[in-house]
Design the sequence.
């Protein structure tokens, strides 16, 4: 199991168009601390490419969400795509 698989599973269970989580919520879900770089918006980029080392984005993209960091608040809004 990859580190962010539990986040993907958690997001897949959500039925709302927008779902907000704190960093602490995410850390509880994945069972590990987020890296310091999660404080930066680029860590939450909604891009998938072969060159990218941002493996975490696959979790929310595969669950059908895009991620949006609320800078300075340690909160992330996941917005359902395609609706």
Sequence:
């Amino acid at each position: 199991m990859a580190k962010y698989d539990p986040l993907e599973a958690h997001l897949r269970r959500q039925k709302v168009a927008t779902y907000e989580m704190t960093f602490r919520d995410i850390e509880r879900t994945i069972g590990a601390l987020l890296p310091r770089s999660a404080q930066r918006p680029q860590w939450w980029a909604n891009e998938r490419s072969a060159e990218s080392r941002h493996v975490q984005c696959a979790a929310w993209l595969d669950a059908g969400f895009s991620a949006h960091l609320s800078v300075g608040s340690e909160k992330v809004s996941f917005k359902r795509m395609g609706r």
Summary: The radius of gyration is 12 Å. The mean pLDDT is 93.
